[in-house]
Amino acid sequence: MALVTFSSPEYRDKTVYAVAGSHTQTILKLALENKIPINFECEDGECGTCVVKVSSIDKKHERMGGPLTEKEKTVLRETGKLTAEDLEKMIVDDLPSEWRLACQMIVRDEDIRVEY
Ligand code: FES
What we know:
By secondary structure, this protein is of the alpha+beta class. The protein is 22% helix and 21% strand. It has helices at 27-33, 70-78, 84-93, and strands at residues 2-7, 14-18, 51-56, 99-101, 112-115.
């Protein structure tokens, strides 16, 4: 079980349980199931509408999801969230990205905050 806290300047924070390790539950699916009003359009990692900022609130495991998908890399670069240097550094230093696409990021067994 993972706890995912959705946070927005316009709404109150909402923390929900996620079934981790399903390999199919994305942050966007979890948000929709819990009536959290994240913006989205394509649901396929193409438009960048669902971009979110993810941070770890799990003191034991300071990771935020798996590595970026190829679609995320492309869209996050196109939208200016990440530069080529940022991406390079993440690969070299094996660092997670704080910027993610909610429709692409799979929930893992870790407690995270998702700002939308
Ligand atoms: S909804 Fe289009 S990239 Fe996620």
